[in-house]
Write a structure and sequence with these properties.
Number of helices: 6
CATH architecture: Orthogonal Bundle
CATH topology: Arc Repressor Mutant, subunit A
InterPro entries: ArsR-like_HTH, ArsR_HTH, HTH_ArsR_DNA-bd_dom, HTH_MetalResp_TranReg, WH-like_DNA-bd_sf, WH_DNA-bd_sf
Order of helices and strands: HHEHHEEHH
Low-confidence stretches: none
Organism: Thermophilibacter immobilis
Mean pLDDT: 86
Number of strands: 3
CATH class: Mainly Alpha
Protein name: Winged helix-turn-helix transcriptional regulator
Keywords: DNA-binding, Transcription, Transcription regulation
GO molecular function: DNA binding; DNA-binding transcription factor activity
Structural class: mainly alpha
Distance between the termini: 49 Å
Length: 117
């Protein structure tokens, strides 16, 4: 996962209805009709939310006859959790190390310029 993918997935999860759908699917696989029974939204709105959830890989759908059955892709959630955990932990190859070096170099240059004045 990278910054862009993580941001896209988090954006999808930033909607309360989608979070509720994820919570419902965490219990069991459900068809669209079952989801609709527990949500106060129209069929077209559910389709919109399911497209967002499936497009980013959080939910997988399978057509069974006239119904669409959905379940969570737990691997994707684990990947997201690992990535976010990695972002928040201290590490040797941290992206900020280069910034710290650049900042330290800039401070040295500024100090040297001040000394010459």
């Amino acid at each position: 996962m990278d910054y862009g993918t993580c941001a896209a997935v988090c954006n999808v999860l930033s909607d309360a209805t989608r979070l509720k759908i994820v919570d419902m699917l965490s219990c069991e696989e459900m068809c669209a009709c079952d989801l609709l029974e527990h949500l106060e939204i129209s069929q077209s709105t559910l389709s919109y939310h399911m497209k967002a959830l499936t497009s980013c890989g959080l939910v997988l759908g399978e057509k069974q006859g006239p119904w669409m059955r959905y379940h969570l892709d737990t691997t994707r959630f684990e990947e997201l959790a690992r990535y976010i955990g990695h972002l928040s932990m201290e590490k040797e190859d941290c992206i900020c190390e280069a910034a710290k070096r650049n900042c330290a170099d800039s401070i040295k240059v500024n100090e040297q310029m001040e000394e010459k004045k």
